Amino acid sequence: MKSPNRFSAWWDQLDALPIITNIRQTAEKFQRGRNIKNAGVMAKGYTESKKEQLAYRLDALTSAIIKKLLHQPTAYLRNLKDPSELESVKKMFNLGEPPHQHESRNQTRAR
């Protein structure tokens, strides 16, 4: 009877998904802004083809760094059992409510 346990684990992690999405979107937005700014400075005097190559490589490098940095915190958030810890994470990352925040899955289950 692993199925009910897997469903319960999946259900519990749903509260963390909007926060995880928000953290990742914030990191990606920061990444894009920095890449645009720095690629322009780094590519002075380059041909258009070389500028595109540099932008592609810079994007690949910074994307890999962001994914590596966020992997462990994301896994931790998915496994949280206490919803109050999610509130602490939101404060730590200065996150408001995600645009499509639904009522807590734990509140729904309690009904």
Could you explain how this protein is built, in words?
The protein has 111 residues and is mainly alpha-helical. The C terminus is likely disordered.
Summarize the structure.
The protein is mainly alpha-helical and 111 residues long. The chain is built from five helices and no strands. α2 packs antiparallel against α3 (48-78).
Per-chain topology:
Blueprint: H1 2-13, H2 17-42, H3 48-78, H4 83-92, H5 105-110
Helix pairs in contact: 2-3
Q: What's the mean pLDDT score?
A: 81
**Radius of gyration, CA atoms, in whole angstroms:** 19 Å
Strand content: under 5%
Please identify the structural class as seen in this structure: mainly alpha
Key structural traits:
single chain, 111 residues, disordered C terminus
